[in-house]
Design a protein that fits this description.
The complex is a heterodimer of chains A (504) and B (353).
Chain A lengths: L21 E6 L4 H16 L7 E7 L5 H15 L6 H9 L1 E5 L5 H18 L4 E6 L5 H11 L10 E5 L7 H12 L7 E4 L6 H11 L13 E9 L8 H26 L8 H13 L9 E7 L1 E3 L2 E3 L17 E6 L11 E6 L6 E8 L19 E7 L3 E9 L7 E9 H4 L7 H11 L5 E2 L1 H19 L6 E4 L22
Parallel strand pairs in A: 1-2, 1-4, 2-3, 4-5, 5-6, 7-12, 8-18
Antiparallel strand pairs in A: 6-17, 7-13, 8-11, 9-10, 11-12, 13-14, 14-15, 15-16
Helix pairs in contact in A: 1-2, 1-11, 6-12, 8-9, 8-12, 9-12
Chain B lengths: L1 E3 L2 E4 L4 H18 L3 E3 L3 E8 L3 H9 L8 E7 L7 E8 L9 E11 L7 H5 L8 E5 L5 H7 L5 E4 L7 H12 L3 E4 H5 L1 H10 L3 H4 L5 E9 L3 H15 L2 E2 L3 E3 L2 E7 L4 E9 L7 E8 L4 E7 L2 E7 L5 E7 L4 H12 L5 H13 L2
Parallel strand pairs in B: 3-7, 4-5, 4-8, 5-7, 8-9, 9-10, 11-15
Antiparallel strand pairs in B: 1-2, 2-6, 6-7, 11-16, 12-14, 13-14, 14-15, 16-17, 17-18, 18-19
Helix pairs in contact in B: 5-11, 9-11
Classes of the chains: A alpha/beta (504), B alpha/beta (353).
């Protein structure tokens, strides 16, 4: 076999493809996300030997502490939050490559010191490291940091790659998202920008593509002729907890619907891409987002939880939670009915709901097929024939189930629904890696398939912005629901006759 | 017959009775608690010597989440003429509301050497159909492996267990004709192959692949096959034509014919190395570049020297997987397909011819 100039013949058959040596910089390195998610994810990648063969980490944050103190903090976070017990030798070696730069994000000297440290890593190794800047800060700093990276020419690095990961939320309104995109893209090319939505890093979300496009069984029925309605649910059983400060400014619509749930909808409704490369997949998702009809405010419900019972204990209402203003109008529950107005989906109601302090934690998509046209079966003494329902569960019990009508054993022809289930946990040997592990690796590799493109994030905001506008006018009024319930009664008004919410 | 909870056992029994007991136990389990879900990934049929059966069970316990859905452990005892069996359906931990708990299904068969040649007729009713069946015979018993070949989609072997490297490579080649072979000796070399592939990935280094002039592999004394497979991999991927290696002072030496020049190959035992597999590799190119990898704390210690003689040393991070981790990886690999192993094996066969 000839050694091709452009291809590395040694990668054939390897599960892990090479990633160019990389220096990762976390802005907000002392923040909650860094401690709970990013540092443990980086450690787990190191443990598995999945990081680039050479890897450095620089944390930038306001706290004025020396390198060693930061390393100590990082060690504690990894030991506390890693999904596996750290190997002391691997952890020591990883921490040897960690540096800390204190300062505020608008301070030019921070970027000067950062540049020096980056150069030092390159010089010591005798190679040019790729650079991955991870913006794990308050959203207000996103344009500041990107602007400073540009001013200090850290947005380019010779022949090496410079990439920037931007955490959510990407704007709080359409205008803000447009402005942020404009500022970011004045410094970076779109190919350098990785807008993160960690939901997309979940295996079960990615499995939707495999499920839809690797099985001929579903394609013929995946349209308005066979599907009656769709429900997307992202229910949480917990309250706002320590996130009240952020959450009260955000609310359920921005926190989950604008990003995660619209992404689920796009994956569910998109046409098959020609290939699974980043732009082909995102092109198809954007088409779906553009096809969503403007949502009538009367087809939305917003609500806030009041005191109730959860897990057998009394829990406070949203307004009684710590750090929540007593007159807050922030919704902790959002439900809407929308429609994707294209050839495949026109006329099919798509119901979405999300909320905190609901009866249980579940994220799922339920597709209900149209009922059969003629019933020759007896219904007496049974629940009768129910429409088939396909349920894709993202959490907690990841899998897919299909309800079918089956004959009840006995002399009479009576039918009741039974379930055919595929459960991830019982069918694959591998444990799904944390979403952040996958996404950090993809960003280092330059694969943007699971990140949101500029036009995609704008299209998401175009759906959500009019709803926010009308909610600001108190239309519809804020409803209430007791903690631990299935949500407000008003949500049932969104449903068309014969449709019903699945039990939470 | 004794029956307690999720356990059934019977002396001088038959495959039909064992299969019926399995079905009954699963049904009882489902009636007791809906939260228990039977795993349906793969069957593992392990044929082991009775005196080492505890050790193998412990190894399988430690593979953690990679455990097979159904384990059929065939314990071979000299002189035994009857079959005794124990079936256990167990769960991992307690159920919490809303959670699912996976079950482990284990069948222990006490058999004698006379059963091995027809082992397929005993095991066939006991494996879950429509999922992959993996056979593993860590204590030899090639007749059992042969009998199970037509039942198995995958044969798990560890070529390091065979003292004679030539016999090991030839047996793996023979089995590869009829089934997909997962070789633990090959899996032990995965991190090494990944790192070499990474090193030669940047374009200036990739160009050096055609100029490799020597490869030195050090290995645990009982693991020359690990070195053969590693060199076989390089030969297969880089289009080298290897010749036979000759034994000299405990090492194996020889050459492979590359496109631009011959490549010197040297495999030598490292007496300080206690765990199976590779201890280190050194690769040199005709233009004066070199790269080495050795085991070290926290990962592999890498050293690279460029044409101008400038060197740098660093640690490639990664935790040791241990032997349990390797076995777990072997079970996981049974669900995948690595086309390169066979190519590497064929080159290794030439080297030991």
């Amino acid at each position: 076999m000839a050694v091709a100039q452009q291809e590395n013949p040694l990668v054939e058959g390897l599960e892990r493809l090479p990633i160019h040596p990389t220096t990762m910089v976390i802005f907000g390195g002392t923040g909650d996300l860094a401690h709970r998610k990013l540092l443990p994810a980086i450690y787990n990648l190191a443990h598995e030997g999945a990081l680039p063969e050479r890897f450095n980490l620089i944390a930038v944050s306001r706290s004025d502490i020396p390198h060693d103190d930061y390393r100590g903090m990082a060690r504690e976070s990894i030991e506390k939050y890693s999904r596996r017990k750290p190997d002391p030798q691997v952890l020591d070696k990883l921490l040897e490559q960690v540096r800390y730069i204190p300062g505020t994000f608008d301070d030019d000297s921070v970027y000067g010191r950062l540049e020096e440290q980056l150069k030092q890593f390159d010089e010591e190794a005798g190679i040019t490291f790729n650079r991955l800047f991870y913006l794990s800060t308050a959203p207000a700093f996103f344009p500041v940091i990107v602007g400073k990276l540009g001013e200090h020419r850290l947005n380019r690095h010779g022949s090496a790659e410079v990439r920037v990961v931007i955490e959510k939320p990407f704007g709080t309104r359409l205008a803000e998202a447009l402005d942020l995109n404009r500022q970011v893209l004045s410094v970076l090319d779109e190919s350098q920008v990785f807008r993160i939505d960690h939901y997309l890093g979940k295996e079960t979300v990615q499995n939707m593509l495999a499920f839809r496009f690797a099985n001929g069984l579903f394609e013929p029925i995946w349209n308005r002729n066979y599907i009656d309605y769709v429900q997307i649910t992202a229910a949480e059983d917990l309250g706002v907890g320590g996130r009240a400060g952020y959450y009260d400014k955000s609310g359920a619509l921005r926190d989950l619907v604008q990003n995660h749930m619209l992404q689920l909808l796009a994956l569910l409704c998109m046409e098959p891409p020609v290939t699974f490369n980043a732009d082909e997949v995102r092109d198809e998702k954007v088409k779906v987002l553009h096809a969503i009809k403007p949502v009538d405010p009367d087809c939305t419900v917003r609500a806030q939880y009041t005191a109730g019972m959860a897990e057998g204990k009394e829990v406070p209402g949203y307004l009684e939670e710590e750090h929540v203003p007593p007159d807050s109008k922030t919704e902790t529950y959002a439900a809407l009915r929308l429609e994707v107005d294209n050839w495949r989906w026109a006329g099919i109601p798509i119901y979405m709901r999300t909320g905190k302090r609901l009866a249980r934690k579940v994220t799922e998509i339920a597709i209900t097929l149209k009922p059969v046209p003629h019933l020759a079966f007896e219904s007496a003494g049974s629940v009768g024939v129910q429409p088939n329902q396909l349920v894709m569960t993202m959490q907690p019990n990841e899998g897919v189930s299909l309800s079918l009508g089956a004959k009840i054993p006995g002399t009479r022809m009576r039918i009741r629904p039974v379930n055919m289930e595929f459960l991830y946990g019982t069918t694959f040997l591998s444990q799904s890696p944390e979403a952040y592990e996958r996404l950090i690796l993809d960003a280092m590799r330059g694969d943007a398939t699971l990140f949101t493109r500029d036009d995609e994030v704008e299209a998401q905001w175009r759906v959500i912005d009019p709803i926010l506008e009308s909610w600001e006018q108190d239309r519809p009024p804020l409803a209430r629901y007791p903690a631990g319930s299935a949500g407000p009664e008003e949500a049932s008004k969104l449903l068309e006759p014969g449709h019903k919410w699945r039990a939470i | 017959m004794t029956q307690a909870g999720g356990i059934w056992s019977e002396r001088d029994t038959s495959p039909g009775a064992i299969e019926e007991a399995l079905r009954e136990l699963l049904k009882e389990q489902a009636l007791r608690d809906e939260a228990h879900a039977p795993a349906r990934v793969l069957n593992l049929v392990a044929v082991v010597d009775r005196e080492w059966r505890g050790e193998i069970r412990n190894r399988l316990e430690r593979v953690g989440r990679y455990h097979p859905s159904r384990l059929v452990l065939c314990s071979v005892e000299e002189g035994r003429t009857t079959i005794d069996a124990t079936v256990a359906i167990t769960t991992e931990g307690d159920t919490r509301p809303g959670d699912l708990v996976l079950t482990r299904e284990q069948v222990l068969l006490e058999i004698g050497p006379r059963h091995l040649e027809k082992l397929d007729t005993i095991v066939d009713p006991l494996v879950v159909s429509d999922i992959a069946t993996v056979s593993w015979s860590p204590h030899g018993h090639p007749e059992a492996t042969d009998a199970l070949l037509h039942l198995s989609q995958v044969i798990l072997v560890d070529s390091l267990n065979e003292f004679d490297p030539r016999a090991a490579v030839e047996r793996a080649c023979e089995l590869s004709e009829d089934a997909y072979v997962v070789d633990l000796a090959w899996l032990r070399s995965t991190p090494w192959r990944e790192r070499v592939a990474s090193t030669f990935d940047p374009m200036p280094w990739r160009e050096e692949l055609g100029r490799i002039s020597s490869v030195k592999v050090s290995h645990q004394a009982q693991s020359p096959v690990a070195g053969l497979l590693f060199c076989g991999w390089l030969a297969a991927r880089l289009g080298w034509e290897p010749g036979s290696l000759l034994s000299a002072s405990g090492a194996l030496r020889g050459q492979a014919h590359g496109r631009r020049q011959d490549v010197a190959l040297r495999l030598e035992p490292d007496p300080t190395m206690s765990v199976p597999g590779l201890a280190g590799i050194e690769i040199e190119t005709a233009s004066g570049m070199s790269f080495s990898l050795y085991r070290g704390p926290g990962g592999l210690t890498a050293r690279r020297t460029d044409r101008k003689g400038r060197s740098s040393t660093w640690t490639v991070l990664g935790a040791s997987r241990g032997e349990a981790g390797i076995l777990g990886e072997g079970i996981r690999q049974a669900l995948l397909r690595d086309p390169v192993y066979r190519e590497a094996l064929e080159r290794a066969e030439v080297m030991v011819a």
